[in-house]
Write a structure and sequence with these properties.
7 helices, about 325 residues, 11-stranded mixed β-sheet, 15 strands, 2 domains, alpha+beta
Length: about 325
């Protein structure tokens, strides 16, 4: 299964998951207005193979970027090699294709780890960070972005939603999900990675690809984030369909489409609600736990993780 592949890679600290160009194009087309005049930093990407560098360099003029910076970690999984920083300021001869004569390549003293002092200095120069950070270091990566007050558009495993510190940022409206709904994404992996039992294929070009539950996480605003969730059901006429939790004063709503339009109290909704979450329409109260700090319970049974929310439009 896709999630099993992620757990195995995380346990082995195998963090070389290379994002497909099609996934980058599909998501980033929704954020074009954010990049005008900005310095973009891809701080977990080998610019020689990264599709992030390819996307931003080829669209440098169209996005009206100010600068593109990329760095990568040279010691992934024990591999050694020189680390370097690549800075690109766009073509100077009117050609839209990136030319290495206009790319400034600088060696790094360290290994290119995003936490290293020299990479932090580069981070300070950036306006927006766009990358696929190591899944095993996702919490630490997000913490750094928040600490330095950076805008970002990054990829993480879907389970990151359930991390206490990440969910706190979602609740505080400092982080939200990207435009494209949840599901799986395919990532290219090195040849030395073990073959998973499922979610694996080899492309016609011989590239090994694995399928993983992954999401885009961002603090860049989009139109989708403010779309109204249309509600059809009412609580008044269907109270029997909304049982209350044993350990919290809220009703269980097992499907997003069943959220009642007239309920003024707290409701427990599936995690997938975050794909429909409009902060102007709903308020997030808390995640998963009842008043006793234990998982929510209904008639002695535990439903899957729930997000507790209130409808702001009902008074």
């Amino acid at each position: 299964m896709a999630n099993e592949n992620l757990h195995k890679a995380k346990a082995a600290k195998m963090d070389e998951f290379y994002t497909q160009l099609s996934d980058i194009e599909r998501e980033l087309k929704h954020y074009r207005e954010h990049f005008k005049g900005k310095v973009v930093y891809c701080n977990c990407d080998d610019p020689m193979t990264s599709h992030f560098f390819q996307y931003f360099s080829l669209n440098f003029k169209e996005l009206e970027l100010k600068k593109l910076i990329t760095t990568c970690y040279s010691g992934i999984n024990g591999n050694s090699g020189s680390s370097f920083c690549l800075m690109y300021n766009g073509e100077q001869d009117g050609n839209n294709m990136p030319d290495f004569s206009y790319i400034d390549i600088q060696g790094l003293e360290g290994d290119g780890d995003f936490r290293s002092p020299e990479c932090v200095e580069l981070l300070k120069q950036a306006d927006i960070v766009v990358t696929n950070p190591p899944f095993s270091l996702f919490r630490e990566f997000v913490d750094q972005l928040v600490r330095y007050e950076k805008q970002f558009l990054i990829i993480g495993n879907t389970n990151a939603i359930t991390y206490k510190d990440v969910f706190s940022l979602i609740k505080e409206d400092k982080l939200w999900l990207g435009v494209n709904d949840g599901g799986t994404m395919e990532f290219a992996v090195p040849d030395y990675y073990p073959n998973p039992r499922s979610g694996y294929r080899t492309t016609e070009n011989g590239v090994r690809v694995v399928k993983i539950f992954a999401r885009w996480f961002t603090n860049l605003d989009t139109q989708k984030r403010h779309e109204e969730l249309i509600l059809y059901r009412t609580y008044k006429d269907n109270e029997q369909d909304y049982p209350k939790y044993d350990n919290y004063n809220a009703i269980e709503v097992s499907k997003i489409k069943d959220i009642p339009m007239d309920y003024t109290g707290v409701m427990g909704v599936p995690i997938s609600f975050l794909d429909k979450y409009n902060p102007n329409q709903f308020a997030i109260v808390k995640f998963r736990k009842g008043d006793d700090d234990k998982d929510l319970i209904i008639n002695g049974h535990y439903p899957y993780f729930r997000i507790l929310v209130k409808n702001k439009r009902v008074y």
